[in-house]
Amino acid sequence: CQRLRLRCRRHAWSRTRRDWSRIVTITTLLRKNGHAAPRSVSATGRLLVGAATASTAMPVKPHLFHGGALPPESEDSPAWWEDGVTAERDRSEMARWFPGFSEVPDKNNGEPAWVGELDTGRGRFTIGVIHRRGRALPRVVMLGDRRLGRSSRGQWIKPPHLYLDGSLCVASREDWDGSADSVATVVGWAAHWCACYNEWRLEGGSWPVAGYVPRVAAA
Predict the structure, then answer these.
(1) 41, 60 contact by CB (below 8 A)
(2) Can you name the residues that pair with 64 across neighbouring β-strands?
(3) 67 touches 160 (CB < 8 A)
(4) In Å, how far are 57, 99, 125 from 44, measured between CA atoms?
(5) Alpha carbons 68 and 60: distance in angstroms, whole number
(6) Which residue has the higher pLDDT, 74 or 4?
(7) Does residue 184 contact residue 98 with C-beta atoms inside 8 Å?
(8) Is the pLDDT of residue 103 over 90?
(9) What is the C-alpha separation between 75 and 84, in angstroms, rounded?
């Protein structure tokens, strides 16, 4: 019985490895399409690279991954999400691009958030996107008991592009425009982060890309 269970585990692992081998990596896609190739994210969280991305996928706004300390927010700023206009923009954009996510209202004067699952094709991640005062870049956290990192030579290595508090550094604060962007913008960045994380964890080596910087046409 023990041998049978072991054989089943080996078969399942082998099948998983074969399934993963059919998935084209980000590095391969960028080598084929160029590092400035447009990127978009499907409603389920799959990253798409190249001009032939699905029309129903949300274009990824240019951004760069970072790390270090979480950019500060103004604690004295009013709860801007109470104005209704910005909150409705969030709801409209999320219904259009990521309908599987749910809005979590603020409680006890806390910040509202959106929660949902991203399926990168090589792993599923449940994330929370939490609004911050002063229209600061929303905070992205990994939910559940997932431990981020990979094992290497007996040591556990945390991924790059995490803030010191453990939240995901999906973009710099300069990438975020609180007057125009929505929480869907951040979910797109988070999907890009998760796709890169999977490749870093499963393929080894360095983080595959620094972010998404499209090529600027010459004047």
Answers:
(1) yes
(2) 211
(3) yes
(4) 9, 9, 11
(5) 23
(6) 74
(7) yes
(8) yes
(9) 20
pTM value surpassing 0.85: no
- Per-residue pLDDT for 23 more than 70? no
Task: Name the phi and psi angles at 185, rounded to 5.
Answer: -60, -45
**Nearest-angstrom CA–CA distance, 14 and 105:** 43
CA angle 27, 188, 32 (to 5 degrees): 25
**Which amino acid belongs to residue 35?**
H
- Residue at token pair 């998983």: 16
Q: What mean pLDDT is reported for the chain?
A: 82
State the first-to-last Cα distance of the chain, in angstroms, to the nearest integer.
70
CA 29 from chain centre, in angstroms, equals: 18
Name the residue type at position 107.
K
CB 149 within 8 A of CB 166: no
Residue that is written with structure tokens 């499963």 in the block: 202
pLDDT of amino acid 51: 62
Please identify which residue in the block is written with the tokens 């991954």: 65
Query: How far is the C-alpha of 161 from the C-alpha of 139, rounded, in Å?
Result: 13
Q: Is 46 helix (H, G, I), strand (E, B) or coil?
A: coil
Mean pLDDT of 107-127: 88
**Residue 158 in tokens:** 């945390």
pLDDT reading at 207 higher than 50: yes
